Amino acid sequence: MANCSQCGKPAVVLAAGNPLCVDCNLKLQQAISMRHAMLAQQMNFLLDEAEAVTGIYGVMPRYRVPQPIIHQGTMNFHNIRIDKSVVGAINTGHVQQIDVALSHIKLTGDPELEKSLAGFTEAVANSTALSAVAKNELLEQIAVVAEQAAMPKESRSWGILKALVTSIGTQAAVAGLGELWDKIKPMLGL
To answer: How many CB atoms within 10 Å of residue 90?
Structure first.
């Protein structure tokens, strides 16, 4: 099996004679899509210019330019509910990571920890005492803690877990969420 010409991972496709892995192929496809959107916008602009010169509007067909999907309503994950007022301010990818880890925690038989982490995550997302940057940093840390909590105790990275628990505790105290976090720490085995 050939290796990717860009990063050295195992290749899965051939693009213009270059072997690419899944990640590099995705990046290539995204670049092609962005280029297509840019060209469609330029063509539409030129059509607008031509119509402005002739004085006849709306007769020339336009290219559809793909628009990114921006979620504006309430987001419901399996374990966490995020209100629409904070969706644009937080990285929902971190929330999704937490949600997946919480599902694993629930399956391993610790519904109390799952509920507590879900409640704390929602409280962080809805906090008005934290800036958007601070919320995202805190959610990223919670995601790692939740992933560690979903692992068997003997497989956890205890040094990383202890450092993150301390950091989250400090930030939670600043945001007025210290009591919530203090209830979770013993459930993590710390």
So the answer is: 21
Could you tell me if 81 and 56 lie in one domain? no
**Quick one: 84 and 64 in the same domain?**
no
DSSP character at residue 3: B
Q: How many structural domains are present in the chain?
A: 2
Rounded Cα distance between 95 and 122, Å, is 9
- Give the angle 154-158-161 at the CA atoms, nearest 5°: 125
Cα angle 134, 139, 144 (rounded to 5 degrees) comes to: 130
Beta bridge partners of 76: 81
Which domain does 36 fall in, by range?
1-68
Q: Could you give the CA distance from residue 35 to residue 43 in angstroms, rounded to a whole number?
A: 12
Q: Same domain for 89 and 180?
A: yes
What is the C-alpha separation between 190 and 184, in angstroms, rounded? 9
Please compute, for residue 110, the number of CA atoms within 13 A of its CA located in the half-sphere on the CB side. 21
Structure tokens at 82: 């995020």
Chain centre to alpha carbon of residue 24:
20
| Residues 6-29: tens digit of each pLDDT | 888 999 999 989 999 988 998 999
9, 41, 68 — which closes off a domain?
Answer: 68
- Last-in-domain residue among 68, 94, 121: 68
Considering the domain architecture, whether residues 159 and 174 belong to the same structural domain is answered as yes
| pTM tops 0.70, yes or no | no
pLDDT digits (tens, 9 = 90+) for 31-47: 998 999 999 999 999 99
